[in-house]
Design goal:
The protein is of the alpha+beta class. It is built from 30 helices and ten strands. Strands 3-2-4-1-5 form a five-stranded mixed sheet, with helices on both faces. The protein has a five-stranded antiparallel sheet with strand order 7-6-10-9-8. It starts with 10 loop residues before the first strand and ends in an 11-residue tail after the last helix. Mean pLDDT is 82; it is low at 1-19, 81-97, 249-260 and 323-348.
Length: 682
């Protein structure tokens, strides 16, 4: 209550934003019992307090600290001129005026009659804090809240306790098609309802609100144009304030889109299932939705780097595009003119002209245990041309492409010439190995049933060219070194993009080796797209995406797998498995390939150190590396799950047996703390 004015007294202004603890400014010309009473009251209430003696110092202090309460002494008018003191204009109060209205009009909102009693001062401050100051604070905060509501992309509706619409935000107008003026003041029951809701849904919602509980679930709303849209709605009762807030999730806006992404459809199905699910199921589905809404849906999360440095280095080296370090170091690919057939390969070989020892080496090329290393030695490091001729002949590739055998031979020779024989791993022997695995997989019954002849031809060609002109360095290395290729391909799938592009450049540049020359245009475009897609699928950054998409599809019936989208998944999985099938080869071949890839990684680490580049795979230091550990990590992280899925699809028990044997071999070496490819001689 405000006591009547009996000749002037201190006045209180509380027109500033409240913050806790409250900050009080006492404007008193001189210290006396009244000012001391307010000082003591502030101390008792744990309020911060400043004192000013002159109008100038009061204004300066307030402008600096923005107090929550300003108490001004007007008992001695000769000391203060209210107009001169305060920042907003008001009439100087007449001390004989009985009414408080002139004071209110002047900007004051409370009058305190002189009373130096400390408890009186204390009680006055408490009433001000819990009344007007907090009310002002809420009012100011309310303005900020409504600004946020106006800017929110969620559709929001606020109603009173008796369900009269008090507010809708612009997002609501956009989603529902109404203008604000058409809704405010109307009862909710006056707004048309969708017939798609269950009959008792509104009663369920109202029951929750009456009990002061929040309701969340699927609700069908009817737009102004009569269309029903499914919304994920949350309704929150505002206890004690006589109203509720209804938030329509942005899912409502997604539903109104004409183009709906598959992941959106999945989320909508789960949202709908939640509506009629018991609480444990609904909560589990909530967790599912959280996972689905993350950006990295296919990449498993690794633990700390200390847990397995080999796995972390493999992931860092194979699944990233480098550290993007800007430096003066440039890694330039060989400038040799590799796009012409070398003279020693100029005379095409006929399938009938293959020397007997090479032909004998290839007799069992349709077996998984075929020894590519023997063929490499017999052909003087030209296994791709010879094996390619035999496999392409077996699959009738020339007939499909309508190209002469001589053109195919020339093409195989020029492609092989563009592999770097100086690379210990990524050379034409690796390409021949991947071609062999691809041909083997294409002969598996379920694979044959899933693919068309054009898919088979695309797979064989993609396997042949998938690493052409590989420099023996990873994508991460090329990006860190600022190589010409990394710049050309924007640090994204650098090598894989180069392999695919160069393969078509080489092929189409010279009619003598253009195996696509006689193809019909549309068929060529389809084949080209399939080859590019398969080569790009060998990039390891998308390893888990390809594997998981395949796993999610293999349980479908065969008819569904024959659809184009699933054929693509099968082809990607096929070339990925062929590309990194070394751990599934017989033990001696597995050991040979492990030694070659390790040497290539060692050479990269050596060069990174020489050039001062980031070392992307520190465990591949030739002086300290444990090859068994690196193989165990590679098998655990990349191979096991992928080949389990591929085996479930294509039925490959022999490969899985080799994989098991090879893993045990590496584990045995590691258990003996050996770092080498083989145990020491007895």
């Amino acid at each position: 209550s405000v006591s009547p004015d009996k000749g002037g007294g201190p006045f209180v202004i509380s027109d500033v934003v409240f913050s806790h603890p409250m900050f009080v400014l006492l404007v008193f010309a001189k210290e006396d019992s009244q000012s001391n009473g307010f000082c003591w009251a502030c101390e008792k209430a744990n309020f911060r307090c400043s004192t000013a003696r002159t109008p100038e110092s009061a204004l300066e202090c307030f402008m600096e600290k923005h107090h929550d309460l300003v108490i001004i002494d007007h008992r001695h008018s000769r000391h203060f001129d209210a107009e001169a003191l305060y920042v907003f204009s008001f009439l100087r109060p007449d001390r004989e005026e009985a009414s408080v209205m002139p004071l209110i009009n002047a900007g004051f909102n409370r009058r305190y009659v002189e009373n130096a009693n400390m408890m009186a001062c204390y009680n006055e401050l408490l009433q001000l804090e819990h009344g007007e100051v907090r009310a002002q604070f809420k009012l100011r905060a309310g303005n900020a809240i409504f600004t946020a509501l106006e800017q929110s992309q969620e559709a929001i509706e606020i109603t009173s306790e008796d369900q009269v619409i008090q507010y809708v935000n612009p997002a609501y107008e956009s989603v529902m098609g109404y203008q604000r003026g058409e809704l405010i003041g109307k009862e909710i029951k006056e707004v048309p309802k969708s017939e798609k809701n269950k009959p008792d849904l509104l009663e369920t919602i109202n029951s929750c609100i009456r009990k002061g509980k929040e309701w969340q679930g699927i609700y069908y709303a009817k737009k102004k144009n009569g269309e029903s849209i499914q919304q994920n709605v949350k309704i929150t009762p505002v206890i004690g304030q006589g109203g509720s807030q209804r938030r329509h999730s942005s899912m409502a806006r997604i539903h109104s889109m004409t183009i709906e992404a598959p992941i959106t459809k999945v989320i909508n199905i789960i949202n709908a299932a939640q509506e009629s699910s018991p609480m444990p199921v609904a909560e589990a589905l909530d967790r599912v939705l959280e996972i689905l809404r993350t950006t990295e849906l296919y990449s498993p999360q690794l633990g700390t780097k200390d847990e397995d440095p080999h796995t972390n280095d493999l992931v860092g080296g194979l699944m990233t595009d480098g550290l993007r370090r800007l430096s003066g170091n440039e890694y330039i690919l060989s400038t040799k003119q590799a796009h012409h057939i070398p003279s020693h390969l100029a005379t095409p070989l006929s399938l009938n002209d293959i020397p007997p020892r090479i032909a004998a080496t290839m007799e069992n090329e349709d077996s998984w245990d075929f020894d590519i290393v023997n063929l490499e030695a017999a052909t003087m490091k030209r296994p791709l041309t010879y094996l390619g001729m035999k496999i392409f002949s077996r699959f009738g590739v020339c007939e499909f492409l309508n190209c002469p055998e001589a053109t195919m031979r020339s093409w195989l020779q020029v492609i092989e010439a563009n592999y770097h024989s100086s690379n210990s791993y990524h050379n034409s022997s690796h390409a021949a190995d991947v071609l062999h695995a691809t041909a083997y997989f294409l002969c598996k019954e379920r694979v044959k049933q899933s693919l068309d002849p054009i898919d088979e031809v695309a797979a064989l060609i993609a396997a042949t060219v998938h690493d052409v002109d590989h420099p023996g360095r990873t994508n991460s290395f090329l990006c860190n070194a600022g190589s010409e290729l990394a710049i050309l391909y924007n640090d994204t799938a650098v090598l894989e993009s180069h392999h695919a592009a160069l393969a078509f450049q080489i092929t189409t540049r010279d009619d003598k080796c253009n195996i696509f020359k006689n193809m019909e245009r549309n068929e060529y475009r389809t084949l080209r797209q399939a080859i590019i897609d398969m080569v790009l699928a060998t990039e390891m950054t998308k390893h888990f995406e390809h594997v998981n998409k395949f796993v999610n599809s293999i349980n479908k019936p065969l008819a569904a797998l024959e659809e184009n989208g699933n054929r693509i998944l099968v082809k990607r999985m096929l070339i990925k498995c062929a590309d990194i099938s070394n751990p599934c080869r017989p033990l001696e071949l597995c050991i040979e390939w492990a030694g070659r890839i390790s040497e290539e990684y060692f050479a990269q680490t050596d060069e990174e150190k020489r050039q001062g580049l980031p070392v992307v795979m520190p465990v591949f230091d030739r002086n300290t590396c444990s090859i068994p550990k690196s193989q165990i990590s590679f098998i655990d992280y990349f191979i096991t799950d992928m080949f389990d899925a591929w085996d479930a699809f294509a039925d490959l028990p022999n490969l899985m047996q080799h994989l098991d044997n090879n893993f045990k071999y590496w584990k045995g070496l590691d258990d003996r703390k050996l770092h080498s490819l083989r145990p020491p001689p007895e």
